[in-house]
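dumping this here before i forget
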Amino acid sequence: MSLDRNQLIGKTAILLLLQDNYKIPESLQKRGWKYCKGKVGSMDTQTVIAAVETAAKKQKLIQPNLYREYHAIYHAIIEALNGVTRGNNLIGTVLRTVGLQFAVVRGNPYKNGEEGDWIAVAFYGTIGAPVKGLEHESIGLGINHI
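structure:
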């Protein structure tokens, strides 16, 4: 049970998110990995979660009728939001708003194929008071097994 250092799922999600010219889609296809990207802005944590889950469902990264897959992406999203919000996933209730880009990657980062798939969610964007210009950058990453 060792990670394949040439295919780290969290690093892949972050690079996919941050680098417009990163040649990741080709390498993902070779590995049989799936991915999607999107944007969300809100003062509501539920809206952020729903945006990522919806994108993952539409791109067939998860099967919503399988609880383990829905559960895995939910926990990856919450973990990534923890990074963005510095450990307190409240947004609007404490007068904060986010403007985020996200990337979701699904694949097996292990040398042994029997380890199964994992899912990574990466966020990058801004968080701050709901006043234009009073926000700052933030990033978060969440990884969970399926």
